[in-house]
What we know:
Elements: H1 12-23, H2 27-40, H3 46-53, H4 57-65, H5 71-79, H6 84-89, H7 92-101, H8 105-117
Amino acid sequence: PPGLPCERPVSARDWQAYLNRMSEEPPWERAWRYRLMMSHQGFKSIRALAWALKEDHSRVARVLQILKLPERVLAALRTHAGHPRVRAHFTEKHLRQLVKDNPGEAAILREIEQVVQGHA
């Protein structure tokens, strides 16, 4: 995976450090990283990617659902990725629910702004 030394086999310590770093990653960044891995590293399916990541394929598929949000929403989330309220409010589960409910781009962007301003 990106961020790990490539010139030698991965040690258990390096792998654990990588996993710790990834667990702090916002769900929209994780979804983007998964998509990049599929397109740039030759993974032909979600199952192949999941196997390489040592994750359940349904988990990887659920994370990738986040990318069905409108591009402006994903851009706003990336813009505010460092904001603690945004990271706490827009969990993977909440983002997947927004995809499912489809409240509209404007409504989601308003929700992001409310969270940033501390009104949500």
